[in-house]
Amino acid sequence: VCFLNYGRLVHENMRNKLKVNVVLLATLAIIVSGLTITEATIGFLPPEIPAESSSRFAEPDAGIVLNPRADINYRLPNNTEPIHYDIELTTNVHNGTRNFAGKVQILLNVVEDTRTIVVHAREMEDIQASISNGSEYALVPTYELEREFLSLTPQLANVNLNRGTNWTLTITYRGQLHTAYSGFHIIPYTDAENKVHYMATTQFESTNARHAFPCYDEPAKRATFTITIRHDASYNAISNMPKNETASSTGVTVFDKTSVTVPTYLIAFHISDYAYTESSLFGLPHRLYSKPSEVGNHQFGLVSGMLVLQGLANLYNVSFVMPRLAQVAIPSKGGAMENWGLVTYGETVLLYNKTTGTTASQFSIANIIAHELTHQWFGNHVAVRWWTYLWLKEGFATLYSYEVLDEVFPEWDVYQRMHVGDYQSALISDGQGIVVPLTHYAQTPTEISARYGTSSYAKPSSVLFMWQHALGDKVFRSGLNKYLIKNAFSSAEEWDLFDALQSAVNEQQVSIPASIRVMFPTWSQQSGYPLLTVTRNYNTNTFTVTQTFYNDNKTLTSDKTFYVPFNYVSRSKIRFP
């Protein structure tokens, strides 16, 4: 999802263009005379303790106000897990009706003996539920509003769900389309003849899929999906997968089963009277949908999507796995959403008017497209284990939106924008002591929403680039390839990334002072950044680099330390590595 865009500072273009090396966070470039690398010393290195817990770093001295944690556990119990969803939705949104009806069948596996299945649900009425594995049994629903838990227990006391068995859970219900831009919602628009049209669309990240259908609404609980939408014959429906022409009929659109498992927040559907244009690149179909009056403004967004998606696949050496990509322009929507195979955008960040548009608006559109399409790998191909690790998808989406744009539109020199914008915003916010660590636990929907800020976008994109620059493009991209392949269609946490990078380091025989598991957490598990002081001794012809924790409030002190990669050159060897 894209609310903000942040960036990196140093770039080594794959076309081998010469670029200027710029200071990135604490990546320090120093020009000195007559020194060898052995004569440079580093002070105050952190301990080499690869502890897998953010409790190893204390935060109060950073000046950050940490809100108290929720008293109850908002996570679903792990006694059952989804395998496949069959979803049927019926809507009359064509005439502005907000009511919709739903039926979901969830094939689930029982992980631990239990009698109760717990799923998420929001604002649903007339819930009827049953379960079957040969015989069908009625379930008694109970609902807890605070955690939005729908608990379902067999009516018969002798029905037990035993570990290792599979069951089909069936739930029917009614709901109402939201008028706000979340969950399953309704949007009106007025055409040139002053006629009002309506559409129904979705915005499920991070905890809103439960408004459209009862589900295991957590990012690591992936499953396959088959979706059916019943709608007026004058409307069309689109979803993550292509339409199944054989199974569909007038007013009933059935979509192919997802070819891979998908987190619930990445499921999407859109019901409207939209029109589309289409093309393809290397056999992959691309479509762009909008109000019929905007079809003339499709070209730039459609072509950019094609080039960016292929560029990202080349950078990661991992293919885009969905059978097609659709991009949808939605009026009055803010930002964009990376639903797998069906990406939704506000009209202003997807549609380009060739008559009135500018290069600045082209950049804005392409940058948002690149951000969302990076998510097709970081967040979709590999999901985050939990929202604690939101930076694993948003940080990469921010970084690689610029990486790929420099390939597709090299004449824009996009890194200049990052130097003066995104990087500076990270330094300013973090220097004020108002940014939590990259890895920061969140539990309630409110806490999760608060994660969408500097600590998930600007700072991690800068930190990730720092490590890319320190390890080198070849090693870093090899590590990302390993991360994407090993964790494909699953979920990951930061340690999975660290291990993938370490594997690439080992494979390429790169010398580093400590393991990635030791070095990277000094940036991901504590807030702030260091101030580096370089002291040169002209008598001994050496220099020393020391670090102190930086905060705009000079009365705050901390003994935090960081692993800081830096470059320097001597007069005799003036070229940077």
Describe the secondary-structure layout:
Blueprint: E1 28-32, E2 40-42, E3 80-91, E4 99-110, E5 117-120, E6 125-132, E7 136-144, E8 149-154, E9 166-176, E10 183-190, E11 196-203, E12 224-230, E13 236-239, E14 252-254, E15 269-272, E16 275-281, E17 284-290, H1 299-316, E18 325-330, E19 336-337, E20 342-346, H2 359-374, E21 382-384, H3 391-408, H4 415-420, H5 422-431, H6 445-449, H7 458-471, H8 473-486, E22 490-492, H9 494-508, H10 516-519, H11 521-524, E23 529-537, E24 542-550, E25 566-570
DSSP, total strands: 25
Give me the side-by-side strand order of the main sheet. 5-8-7-6-9-4-3-12-14
CATH architecture of the largest domain: Orthogonal Bundle
Query: How much β-strand is present in the residues?
Result: 25-35%
Spatial separation of the terminal alpha carbons: 35 Å
The overall pLDDT average reads: 88
Unreliable residue runs: 3-66
- Largest sheet descriptor: 9 strands, mixed
**What do we call the CATH topology of the largest domain?**
Neutral Protease, domain 2
| Contiguous helical run count | 11
Q: CATH H-level name of the largest domain... which superfamily?
A: Neutral Protease Domain 2
Name the helicity range. 10-25%
Number of domains: 2
Structural class: alpha/beta
CATH class of the largest domain: Mainly Alpha
Shape call: globular
Radius of gyration: 26 Å
